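Hi P.,

Sorry for the delay on this. The queue was packed all week, but I finally got your sequence through. Input first:
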Amino acid sequence: MNTFANKAVLVTGGSSGLGFEMARQLVGRGAAVSICGRSQERLEKASRLVPELSIIRCDVTEAESRRALYDEVLRRHGRQDLLVNNAGVGMRYLLAKAEDLERRVVEEWRTNFLAPLLLAQQFLDLLARSSGTLVNVSSGLAYVPLSVEPSYCASKAALHSMTQSMRLQYSKSGVKVAEIFYPAVDTPFQGGRAPANALPPAEAAALALRGLEAGKPEIRVRMAALIYAMSRLMPGRALKTINGFIPDNVEELLAKE
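Then the structure:
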């Protein structure tokens, strides 16, 4: 049985990378998929690649833009069965060297933590009407931080905790809440620094959707499952292992970014 057929789906940050790949595969499964993003150019490019996609320009960090997104989804579809909070931003820097530390931290937390929380609240009534599903996209780094992405990892750890609370509270409204933990995936999000073992986005998205179809509340894709296990069984070793991939000349490399 195709879980997603004829479902109204919204994927934030869906114009490229994992968001686009999830949207593309959901279209292939018969869903009516809307994607949103800040760049009209990227949205139009995504629409050319997958004409079935419905595009909506939106900055999920802005309250007025979120309200407009809700109104447009309601106008186009009249319902919401699946909301995928996929939009995210990650920056690499050294805490002691970042002169614009506040700007970086505020941007990451507004996008990675506040936006999913507030969008869920915005769309809760529509999701409740259809006994729908809220999906928060996280990372294996929510369990074990990569020190050169400190605020990204912290925001995803906070999102994980918040998602657990959402799951308990929103169940009273009939809304299911799932969380996807991705490992490194070879997308533009990596900024050209994807590790050799990074998953292709098509494979990562397919595994995530398979977990959603199975009704799993927490979906740990490939290496994210190993990171989770290590964080529970040997947290110190997990921290050393994850951060062992950072090169000795990281300060020099970051200065060039």
